[in-house]
Design brief:
Length: 666
């Protein structure tokens, strides 16, 4: 604007004076807006837990970048403008129309002046505009609430126009894990056969590059497996298959849809192995959890907890979109227990150590020696053992003998008696309380709906002892278990992460808004003008939820980060309009003319900076983790910019009417 007033052959002194004037003109609001953004992102340090570690780079790097950009804007940018920008551009054509106090309006500014003049002059039209904006804001906020109103119930398909709520959406990966858990007493050969059947299915998939099978032992532990305890999952009934896909840049189908399509075929294979659970575990985009939908059952009696957990497991299986359900209760496994007849051993005369050694040879075998094949670095043990199909068979003791001190052979069946019993089950503890886990994975929906439906069914469920089950841990404050309080179900898993994240981010947003308000109060020396400037924040929300619906993206923790960022970014537009309006009033403009000119002069810069935000953030839209953040920033900034240039001048005129110039501009 200032260069347009200079002649085409202006010297460096005139250009430098224009540059300094232009920089000083927006200096205060630019500095203040920068610090509002810094306050907003510093507030992200209030996010605790693993999610806080995820977003810590944002909380640190963005304030540093904003302060650095402010220094560049005050030093490098004015110098470049003086050196490279042309003058008298406006006299060659872009500015046409009537002159207003020596300035020629741009076509866009001319349209804006007509619109704002009409709204300033016509009260009914102005009220209708206010009503329309309020209606859009209410409808936007109803979209997250509308998701809970469904024809099929809380766990049915999401209602049209509803925006689902999630922690972090899944991302398309190049690998995933298939975990096979067969019945507890399944031999290793049967587990291997099941793994080979799954492998044959994988061979038929064109996008599967390769896979590696681990039978009886866990696969290589990844970040997700650390929390799930995969390193302890070893046994003849367990197997892992690590599946590697072709690069996601070379295939049209993402891994999420592929796993969803593969799951029914895997379930058919699992159905031929009664009591088995085959899990398709995808790498989470955020912090891993033991299970997506996870219930922890606490109580004083283990037998009652066992029966209660199986009853709750049936409820899990009947839940909409629940694909895989597993409990921490292992199946019943029979075992043989060998005990010595001490009296008979004493009478028969064999050495007790010899009896123990022979029994151990029958069960585990014995290393007789070591071979040293050519080319082997370490000696190879030579083990003598009974074939697996004959091992741990009580009848085998009749055909095994031990010599006593007199050289007489005595069958082991006379010296050892065998009892059949149930294997002792492990007892899990959390915070020094005994706990039973029930976990489930969902195929295509977010866990909040499944948990709310299950909580409705399980709260008040009668326990075998005549007591009633209580459900908890669905508030923002975590609940600690106490077995003395009776039988209780605590919800954990992804929903607990979601509640913790939104609690911390809600606190961060509140602190950010408070920090912005205090900064503005100190700058304007007023309690009312900061509220006017902060109207840009709710106006931004009008575009956030509809954009998530249009893109089919769930409102996630990253989206909430975008909303928090908007609180600092969009306030800048209000500050510029208010500062320019006050400056025009100091120059002698009337209140209506001042707000009209302030909006018209700042219209192009506001739209250009908004476009810069949109284009700079658009590269993150396809990203699974930060896509929600980008959508919130882009469409929140666009909506706020389009409405702020109209709402703020109108409200400023109304707020300042009747005030003296001294009270207004002091």
């Amino acid at each position: 604007r200032h260069f347009d007033k200079l002649p085409a052959d202006a010297d460096n002194t005139s250009k430098a004076r224009a540059v300094v004037t232009a920089t000083a003109e927006i200096g205060n609001p630019t500095t203040l807006a920068t610090f509002t953004v810094v306050v907003v992102f510093v507030s992200l340090l209030l996010i605790t837990g693993m999610l806080g570690e995820y977003f810590y780079p944002l909380a640190f790097n963005l304030p540093v970048a904003m302060i650095a950009s402010l220094l560049v804007a005050y030093t490098v940018t004015p110098w470049l403008a003086r050196r490279w920008m042309l003058t008298a551009i406006g006299h060659d054509g872009p500015y046409k129309g009537e002159h207003l106090r020596g300035e020629e309006p741009h076509r866009l500014q001319g349209f804006y002046r007509k619109l704002i003049t009409t709204l300033l002059a016509r009260r009914k039209l102005r009220k209708l505009f206010y009503l329309l904006v309020a209606l859009l804001l209410v409808l936007s906020f109803l979209q997250p609430a509308w998701q809970f109103i469904r024809a099929q119930g809380i766990t049915g398909a999401v209602s049209p126009l509803g925006v689902p709520l999630a922690f972090l959406p899944k991302d398309s990966k190049n690998t995933f894990l298939i975990h096979l858990h067969l019945a507890e007493n399944t031999p290793l050969e049967v587990t291997d056969r099941a793994a080979r059947e799954v492998g044959e299915l994988l061979r038929q998939q064109s996008i599967v590059s390769n896979y590696q099978t681990y039978v009886g032992i866990p696969s290589v532990i990844d970040f997700n497996g650390q929390l799930r305890g995969s390193g302890n999952q070893a046994g003849s009934q367990l197997a892992d298959i690590r599946v590697n896909l072709t690069s996601k840049f070379e295939r049209s189908e993402n891994s999420i849809n592929f796993v969803r399509r593969l799951r029914p075929e895997i379930e058919k294979i699992a159905a031929s192995y009664p009591g088995s659970v085959f899990k398709l575990i995808e790498d989470p985009p955020g912090p891993p959890v033991r299970a997506t939908v996870l219930a922890e059952i606490y109580g004083p009696d283990l037998d009652v907890l066992d029966r209660l957990t199986k009853k709750i497991e049936a409820k899990f299986v009947d839940t909409y979109d629940m694909a895989e359900v597993q409990t921490s209760i292992p199946g019943d496994v029979s075992e043989y227990r060998f005990r010595f007849h001490r009296d008979k051993i004493a009478l028969a005369g064999p050495d007790p150590a010899t009896v123990s050694r022979v029994l151990n040879q029958l069960i585990q075998g014995e290393v007789l020696g070591h071979a040293h094949p050519q080319g082997e670095r370490a000696p190879v043990p030579i083990r003598l053992h009974i074939p697996r199909e004959h091992r741990i068979n009580p009848a085998l003791l009749e055909r095994a003998f031990v010599n006593n001190t007199r050289g007489k052979s005595i069958p082991l069946s006379e010296l050892v008696y065998v009892t059949k019993a149930k294997q002792v089950k492990p007892i899990h503890h959390k915070n020094s309380e005994r706990v039973f886990y029930i976990g489930g994975e969902l195929s295509n929906s977010d866990p909040v709906y499944a948990v709310l439906d299950l909580d409705r069914q399980l709260d008040g469920l009668e326990v075998a002892t005549g007591q009633y089950l209580k459900t908890a841990n669905l508030n923002f404050t975590p609940v600690r278990a106490n077995a003395l309080e009776g039988y209780k179900l605590l919800w954990e898993g992804e929903l607990r992460l979601t509640l913790d994240a939104f609690r911390d981010m809600g606190l961060a947003l509140g602190m950010a808004l408070l920090g912005i308000y205090l900064l503005l109060v100190g700058y304007y020396r007023s309690f009312r003008l900061p509220l006017l400037a902060m109207t840009a924040v709710p106006l931004a929300l009008i575009g956030v939820f509809p954009a998530h619906w249009a893109f089919g993206v769930s409102f996630s923790a990253a989206s909430m980060i975008g909303v928090i960022a908007l609180a600092g970014v969009v306030v800048r537009n209000s500050l510029l309009i208010i500062d320019f309006a006050q400056d025009y009033q100091r120059q002698g403009y009337g209140i209506e003319e001042a707000v009209r000119e302030a909006g018209a002069v700042r219209l192009r810069p506001i739209l250009l900076t908004t476009l810069a935000i949109a284009l700079g953030t658009a590269v993150m839209v396809p990203d699974a983790v930060f896509g929600g953040l980008a959508i919130a920033l882009i469409f929140g900034a666009i909506t706020s910019a389009l409405l702020v240039v109209i709402i703020v001048p109108l409200l400023y005129r109304r707020m300042m009417e009747g005030q003296t110039d001294d009270s207004l501009l002091s």
